[in-house]
Amino acid sequence: MKAHLHLNHPRPRARRGLNASFIWPALLVLVATVLLALAAAPPAAKVLVVNSDASVAKYVEVQHAFKEALGTDAGTVTEVDLSKVGEAGLRRTLAAENPTILYCVGSPAYQAAVKLARGRSIILSTAINWERFKPDPRTTRVIADELPALAQLTLFRHFFPKLQRVGVVYNPAINKQWFEQAVVAGKEVGVEVIGRTVTRSSQVGSALAELTPKVDALWLTPDPVVLENTAAVKLYFTRADAARKPVFAYSTTYLQLDPNSPLGATLVLAPDVPTTGRQAASVAQDFAGAPPVTTPAGSEVTLNLKRVQQYGLEFNRDALDAVNNLLR
Amino acid sequence: MSIVLRDTTLGRVRPAKDRMLPPLQFSRRHALRALALVGLGAPFLRLAHAQAAGGATIHFYSPETNINNFGTLKSEFDTFFANAGGHKFQPYGDRAAFEKALAGKSGVFLLSSWHYPQLAAKAAWQPVLIGQLKDKSTQRHVLCARRGVANVAALKGAKVASPGNKAFTLNLLADLLGPAHRTLVTEQNVLPVPKDMDALMAIGFGLAQAAIATEGGLEKLAKTNAKQHDALTQLVCGPERLLPIVVARSQPDAASQALLQVLARMGQETEGQQRLRLLGLDAFAPIGEAHRHELRK
């Protein structure tokens, strides 16, 4: 009770005056500092993350890594799940939030964003064959969803040091340039990349029949013609399996073609999902300075040891520390 | 004293005197046998006890790699341990969760030798084993850049790719760059990638201007892609750092002791070594006093 009275006791005038003489200049300096800091720092970009479907684990993971990498800037991030809110919901969010940048995770999100947020800055990631959208380099930054051929070939060699020839079937209308780069990259790591061209998926079988005996492994890439129908894709695996040769693929969906099939890829190299999210965050922090297309900086490796043993392949055990998923 | 034996053939209990043996002779001989059995069988009994208790857990966290291989590590180690004491492997992607587990009183912990000295509770956890790679218990980190970058001063504001997390990378960079240049690279400039090979190749792809990797990682690139390797210059080579260590309580319980024995033998068998290679190791060895001293610094 005594303490309470003491606290409420009026302070002497002289002491109050002394405090005030310090407080006002200090406050002025503080306000000036804050104003100067605000003027010097560029305004933090307001980001809207448009997730194509938040029930897809990969999309959630990339989104999480993006937010984590933005760190303190994460307060300016709004998120929507397109599969839940639909285009109408996205339109409402755009109007309410007025974001500076849209980060689109997956193809559906990008297609909706292009339609509803024309002219705004867009970052796209985790979209297979993103080139088909022909993104506008003035407004769009892409984190590609395919590892460069050189990175893949280097890892092929890392896991299978005796690999000499790898075969790939592709449509020249779409992947001619990619194939030429792969041939050059192959020379860099001592692997001959042999290709067979197709223009229709019905030609995949004959191309593989000719190619398989000439190579040590088949390389399945996201070529739209090869992937056009499941029968053509299955041929990759049946031909390779008959010749006891491995298939190297770009997605873990090819580890087992279907639950009843013994067929599947031996090695899968895909972009590392959290690294893609971090790269997208880096682009968001410097959108203008980022190149139109960024190569994935991280790789995710899946090795099917069962198939390695089944085909009697020699693999580099020292490479196991680079494996994300090991199947037996 | 009447000694009661169980007749396993008939499944009934009968007194020792019924077996027509002088009580003293029987007692001495059997007591010696029993002692020998207890002495020789103690490790097996302990193992059996550990198995009955579900074994111990080895908790793992590393800031030195960003590879998300937790599912594989868990399944591979648990499968291996199934026939070696029924122990469990528990990986963590989050340092706080790992340190929370350390606050418990049981199990053993596999962690970076960089992390251990920072633990608040390190006095309660003693280093027991140290990772081995090619008969060495240390490794060195290197800072590389594109050939043509003359020195570290040119890295001001540069993007640095690293297989470690940001805290580990910044600490390592401070060591590698030295006091004069330690502020050249900020947190925002660090690009965490899964592994050494990714970090080193990021330079060639123009995704980073510099990269941190282990010497071993740089050698792997040289073997696989000599052109990419030759396009790099090694700006700084850091000091030898201890490989990951296994720590346990000063007086570990029986299950933890059994697990430590299993870990110490893992590198001697193909199946065990294959699991350790997933961690970038090929064996565990007992930790020496010199290394313990280094960890106390």
What this model shows, in words?
The complex is a heterodimer of chains A (328) and B (297). Chain A is built from eleven helices and 13 strands. With 328 residues, chain A is of the alpha/beta class. In chain A, strand 8, helix 9 and strand 9 form a beta-alpha-beta unit. In chain A, helix 4 packs parallel to helix 5. The radius of gyration of chain A is 28 Å and the shape is elongated. With 297 residues, chain B is an alpha/beta fold. Chain B has three domains: 49 residues, no CATH class; 134 residues, D-Maltodextrin-Binding Protein, domain 2 (3-Layer(aba) Sandwich), CATH 3.40.190.10; 103 residues, 3-Layer(aba) Sandwich (D-Maltodextrin-Binding Protein, domain 2), CATH 3.40.190.10. The termini of chain B are far apart. The N terminus of chain B is likely disordered. Chain B is 39% helix and 23% strand. Chain B has ten helices and 13 strands. Classes of the chains: A alpha/beta (328), B alpha/beta (297). At the A-B interface, helix 6 and helix 10 of A face helix 2, helix 5 and helix 6 of B.
Which stretches of chain A of 5+ consecutive residues score pLDDT under 50? 1-18, 37-41
Task: Name the helix and strand elements of chain A from N-terminus to C-terminus, one letter apiece.
Answer: HHEHEHEHEEHEHEHEHEEHEEHE
Strand order of the largest sheet of chain B: 4-3-5-12-6-13
CATH architecture of the largest domain in chain B: 3-Layer(aba) Sandwich
CATH homology superfamily of the largest domain in chain B: Periplasmic binding protein-like II
The rounded distance between the terminal residues' Cα atoms of chain A is: 75 Å
Form type of chain B: globular
The CATH superfamily of the largest domain in chain A turns out to be Response regulator
End-to-end CA span of chain B: 60 Å
Strand order of the largest sheet of chain A: 7-6-8-9-10-12-13
The largest β sheet of chain B comes out as:
6 strands, mixed
CATH topology of the largest domain in chain A: Rossmann fold
